[in-house]
């Protein structure tokens, strides 16, 4: 498949240099096996929505309460997205205006805490997120961030530690969820601890929102005061975010988002969120969500069979975290070699990692993108084989072996066109 100027005619005419880069990225996404768990392919409909004339409109405020006129259509677009979010996730309130996941989490702080208050979140090296109170983040600078981790023997969340810290520190907010958590999150256990210390429980489901929507992961809604999520990743929407909550917290959440942290929403993104939420309500999406998990489990088993060490011993969701210490290849070296082989991953710390974050021991992989392309469990042994060969080639600096893998990957990808990519259209 090759890109053609007819795909983006106005862009090619106005800015050939930038258009060439877009074409190159389209080709790269088509030819490579994308295993970064936070990435996915959106549909052509979602892409179209992000490029509509809704981009032209400013809309500070909320439907029916705007600071600009001419909102007849915009109010309906945002209301559509809100109602679809409420129906899909079974929540009482939804705000679809946050620009992305980190600003959405920051709005939670503004709504429920004051600078200096204590927040409890998962340690970043253990699998948490920067915005859960980690030191280098504004949330760890402005608030007293206290972190919990995982058990060394199981790689799973240490709930004894969570409860002990909660009772000792009495946090205003408790975050659950993260960026490298391969196991089912026990929202009920977190909810019980939060109630015991009168804390606001925030379930950050940015990674697993699509799995929750598709019934492939338990929902946090019965247990959490607030549910925060991005709208891309497993949800297959645009780069945006949502905050969902009980009705009692609606006013605080909305006020924190606007005017607390941002001005006018990105209406073209709101429209694309609405499209993605409609797609996620279809029976086919439920099949997709379960296929993501089935593929991840099959890939994990195939990697274990090849002698890889997996954090927690496997996965319950879309994500597999690989500790390469026994392979004697650092995560960064492996990730860059796999990239040259057409296999896109990210290097990542593993729990209790003795190496530095920018040169860690692990790599993080996931199955959302390959599942969107129609790959199934029967393909996972081949994917594991490529990862195995790629890691060994990284250790021996065998560029010829990496080039061979890249050709094999491209051949398989050609047989599984990616949703939304205009190549070959």
Short description:
The protein is an alpha/beta fold.
Q: Tell me the CATH superfamily of the largest domain.
A: Type I PLP-dependent aspartate aminotransferase-like (Major domain)
β-strand amount: 5-15%
Outline the low-pLDDT stretches: none
In the CATH scheme, the class of the largest domain would be: Alpha Beta
Mean pLDDT: 96
The helix content is 40-55%
Major β-sheet strand ordering = 4-10-9-8-7-5-6
Distinct helical segment count: 16
Task: Report the major sheet.
Answer: 7 strands, mixed
How would the global form be characterised? globular
Terminal Cα separation, in Å? 9 Å
**Class derived from helix and strand content:** alpha/beta
CATH topology label of the largest domain = Aspartate Aminotransferase, domain 2
Please state the second-level CATH architecture of the largest domain. Answer: 3-Layer(aba) Sandwich
Rg, rounded, reads 22 Å
Please, how many domains? 2
Per DSSP E runs of 2 or more residues, the count of β-strands stands at 15
Catalytic activity: (6R)-5,10-methylene-5,6,7,8-tetrahydrofolate + glycine + H2O = (6S)-5,6,7,8-tetrahydrofolate + L-serine
Subunit structure: Homodimer.
Site (Plays an important role in substrate specificity): 232
Keywords: Amino-acid biosynthesis, Cytoplasm, Methyltransferase, One-carbon metabolism, Pyridoxal phosphate, Transferase
């Amino acid at each position: 498949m090759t890109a053609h100027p007819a795909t983006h005619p106005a862009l090619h005419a106005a800015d050939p240099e930038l258009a060439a880069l877009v074409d190159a990225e389209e080709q790269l996404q088509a030819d490579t096996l994308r295993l970064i768990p936070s990435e996915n392919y959106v549909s052509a409909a979602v892409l179209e929505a992000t490029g509509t004339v809704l981009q032209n409109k400013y809309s500070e405020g909320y439907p029916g309460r705007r600071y600009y006129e001419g909102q007849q259509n915009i109010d309906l677009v945002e209301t559509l997205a809100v109602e679809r979010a409420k129906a899909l996730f079974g929540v009482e309130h939804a705000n679809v205006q946050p620009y992305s996941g980190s600003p959405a989490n920051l709005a939670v702080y503004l709504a429920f805490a004051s600078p200096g208050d204590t927040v409890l979140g998962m340690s970043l090296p253990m699998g948490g997120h920067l915005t859960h109170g980690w030191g280098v983040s504004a949330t760890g600078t402005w608030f007293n961030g206290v972190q919990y981790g995982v058990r060394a023997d199981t790689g799973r969340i240490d709930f004894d530690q969570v409860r002990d810290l909660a009772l000792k520190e009495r946090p205003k907010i408790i975050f659950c969820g993260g960026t490298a958590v391969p196991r089912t999150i026990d929202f009920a256990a977190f909810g019980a601890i939060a109630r015991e210390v009168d804390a606001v429980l925030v379930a950050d489901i940015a990674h697993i929102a699509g799995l929750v929507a598709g019934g492939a992961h338990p929902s946090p809604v019965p247990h959490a005061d607030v549910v925060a999520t991005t709208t891309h990743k497993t949800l297959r929407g645009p780069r945006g975010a949502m905050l969902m909550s009980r009705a009692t917290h609606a006013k605080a959440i909305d006020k924190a988002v606007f005017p607390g942290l941002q001005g006018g929403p990105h209406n073209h993104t709101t429209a694309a969120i609405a499209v993605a939420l409609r797609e996620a309500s279809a029976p086919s999406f439920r099949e997709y969500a379960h296929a993501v998990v089935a593929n991840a489990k099959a890939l994990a088993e195939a990697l274990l069979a090849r002698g890889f060490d997996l954090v927690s011993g496997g996965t319950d969701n879309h994500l597999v975290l690989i500790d390469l210490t026994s392979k004697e290849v650092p995560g960064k070296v492996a990730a860059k070699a796999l990239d040259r082989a057409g296999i896109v991953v990210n290097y990542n710390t593993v729990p209790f990692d003795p190496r530095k974050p920018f040169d860690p021991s692990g790599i993080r992989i996931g199955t959302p993108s390959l599942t969107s392309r129609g790959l199934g469990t029967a393909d996972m042994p081949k994917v594991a084989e490529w990862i195995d060969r790629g890691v060994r080639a990284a250790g021996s600096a065998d560029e010829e072996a990496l080039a061979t893998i890249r050709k094999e990957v491209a051949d398989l990808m050609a047989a599984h066109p990616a949703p939304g990519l205009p190549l070959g259209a």
